[in-house]
Specification:
The complex is a heterodimer of chains A (about 160) and B (about 450). Chain A is mainly alpha-helical. Helix content of chain A is about 45%, strand content about 0%. In chain B, the strands form nine sheets. A four-stranded antiparallel sheet of chain B has the order 1-32-31-30, with no helix packed on it. Chain B has a four-stranded antiparallel sheet with strand order 2-3-4-5, with no helix packed on it. The chains are: A mainly alpha (about 160), B mainly beta (about 450). Chain A: Belongs to the IER family.
């Protein structure tokens, strides 16, 4: 179970990063699902690892209890600070178990790009809320980013 | 073989296929939306290249042939172009996410088409007459020398070859921060809604420089985001009611009379999760990819990754019907996550009388469920079955054990051949099925 969890975790992270370069920009829905899956896998993996350390022979915890947690840092994980730390931590755990020579570097796994700005910070700066016109409805935000004077040619 | 589609048994036959035969599929040619108009006379498709192709049904001939009128190309136009958001350094895809027709009110046809950010209202009109005999210009359009004009004449309308023109009448832009997933014309025929991942806006068809935000689920802190809007639709008869589905498998029905801001729902539809089927991918497969009201307005249908559910609007705690589309994939979710297929967004549709529903699957299979007889059928959109009026043979996926003849095993399914978009003629048993870059049209033999 923890092998599968680790695999899904790594898969999710690589998908999250490759989705940054996708045409059309980051897809919020997909990113959210990837983050949630990664978090669930990470929780399972950590629980399994911790249990093995405490009671090596004890059975694994059921998955249900872990997935009750609220996803309050799902998007932070796009930045992968947490998972990165965990991966390094995992390496150490693994190394201590397997007695392999410890890799004493802070080298990140190959598939992780350099740290970039967190998702959605740019968008918050750009929002321009129109003043309430008093009738109780919200008018939509207008983004002036797009050139609106494009010539539209009738076919 | 018995088909599905209503009281009598129907038999689905191949009618037409549109699109290139090449094995190499150009990305731009991949069909991304299919929609019949209100009468069924016109069938519109949108593709990843931002083009819209409209097919028109031929008038039926007096001598009744077995197959009804065929659909032929009526108009093709470039609806959306790729754009670039300079502030975010992001490209905006030209892919047409949705097309929705407006009801016909005069000789012209109108439709709404949308990509991720911009909605456009297109007018499709016919021109079969041309004015000839102008005073100030020649027949080829060049201006005449004024000194040579010695007499006046009235221009005369002469017949010409039919020309179908598409012109953008309205551009509804700059109102969506996130990617638009749905548009839906209201039953008042004056307004429509557009939905992105976090917000739903209400537009008036005549007004492009503003819209009203009626749903906003964006949290104050984006790190607290737990669900997004995946689809939205207006009620077919009650212009104050609309629904939207979420990535958590829930549907909210909102009444615009209750409040101007519909953040609080009037009804909340959710089926309790079965804890025994919980897995890493439970969240993903419960995400609703499509929601459609029945024509009657009494029911709505939702599609998640493995099933289609029919809900009675009067009962919120569970669906009244659940149909398994491809339950055999449940044990393959990890592989489907790996190859990204688990994120595929399948659509679903009702037939005209709401007695049957249809949705797509993999290997170019599509499924139909008869709500009355509870029979279901799996059919394939394939060029191998493309002789005119050839009857479609039901297909079956072998889920384990010995594979029978004509069955296909789960591991042999081609997950690149997916049918995400299907449409059912509003009045007749004619269906349009989009298989990657090809559009298949099937008809009932008795049609």
């Amino acid at each position: 179970m923890d092998v599968e969890a680790r695999r899904i975790m790594a898969l999710s992270i690589s998908k999250l990063y490759s989705s940054r370069t996708q045409r059309g920009g980051l897809r919020l829905h997909r990113s959210l699902l990837l983050s949630m899956t990664m978090r669930a896998a990470r929780d399972i993996y950590h629980a399994a690892v911790e249990q093995e350390q405490v009671v090596p022979c004890a059975p694994e915890e059921p998955m249900d209890t872990k997935e009750q947690d609220t996803v309050n840092d799902s998007l932070k994980e796009v930045n992968t600070r947490e998972p990165k730390d965990n991966l390094e931590e995992d390496k150490e755990n693994q190394d201590s178990k397997s007695r392999k020579r410890r890799v004493k570097t802070a080298i990140e796994p190959d598939f992780l790009p350099p740290k970039k700005a967190r998702m959605d910070t740019d968008e918050e700066r750009q929002e321009v809320l129109k003043p309430n016109n008093g009738n109780g409805c919200r008018q939509t935000e207008t983004l002036t980013a797009f050139p609106t004077n494009r010539a539209i040619v009738a076919c | 073989m018995a088909g599905v589609g209503g009281g009598n048994d129907f038999q689905w036959c191949f009618s037409q296929v549109k699109g290139a035969i090449d094995e190499d599929v150009a990305e731009a040619d991949i069909i991304s939306t299919v929609e019949f108009n209100y009468s069924g006379e016109l069938l519109a498709t949108g593709d990843k290249g931002g083009r819209v192709v409209i097919f028109q049904r031929e008038q039926e001939s007096k001598n009744r042939s077995l197959s009804r009128g065929e659909y032929n190309v009526y108009s093709t136009f470039q609806s959306h172009e790729p754009e670039f958001d300079y502030l975010k350094s992001l490209e905006i895809e030209e892919k047409i996410n949705k097309i929705r027709w407006l009801p016909q009110q005069n000789a012209a046809h109108f439709l709404l088409s949308t990509n991720d950010k911009t909605i456009k209202l297109w007018k499709i009109s016919e021109r079969d007459k041309r004015a000839e005999g102008y005073n100030l210009k020649d027949e080829d359009g060049r201006l005449r020398d004024p000194f040579r004009i010695t007499s006046l004449r009235v221009p005369v309308l002469m017949p010409m070859d039919l020309m179908v023109e598409a012109s953008p009448r309205r551009i509804f832009a700059n109102a969506h921060t996130y990617h638009i997933n749905s548009i839906s014309v209201n039953s008042d025929y004056q307004t429509y809604l557009s939905a992105d991942d976090l917000r739903i806006n209400l537009w008036h068809l005549e007004i492009t420089d503003r819209s009203f935000n009626i749903v906003d689920i964006k949290p104050a802190n984006m790190e607290e985001l737990t669900e997004v809007i995946t689809a939205a639709e207006c009620h077919p008869h009650q212009c104050n009611v609309f629904v939207y589905s979420s990535s958590k498998g829930t549907i909210r029905l909102c009444d615009m009379r209750a409040a101007a801001l519909c953040d609080r729902h009037s009804k909340f539809f959710e089926e309790p999760e079965d804890p025994s089927s919980r897995s890493f991918f439970s969240e993903i497969i419960s995400s609703i990819s499509d929601v459609k009201f029945s024509h009657s307005g009494r029911y709505m249908m939702t599609r998640d990754y493995l099933s289609v559910k029919v809900w009675d609007l009067n009962m919120e705690n569970r669906p009244v019907e659940t149909y398994q589309v491809h339950e055999y994939l449940r044990s393959k979710l990890c592989s489907l996550y790996e190859n990204d297929c688990i994120f595929d967004k399948f659509e679903c549709c009702w037939n005209g009388s709401d007695s049957a529903i249809m949705t797509g699957s993999y290997n170019n299979f599509f499924r139909m469920f008869d709500r009355n007889t509870r029979r279901d059928i799996t059919l394939e959109a394939s060029r191998e079955n493309s002789k005119p009026r050839a009857m479609l043979k039901p297909r079956k996926v072998c889920t384990g054990g010995k594979r029978k003849k004509d069955e296909i095993s789960v591991d042999s399914l081609d997950f690149n051949k997916k049918i995400l978009h299907t449409a059912w003629h509003p009045k007749e048993n004619v269906i349009a099925v989009a298989a990657t870059n090809n559009l298949y049209i099937f008809q009932d033999k008795m049609n």
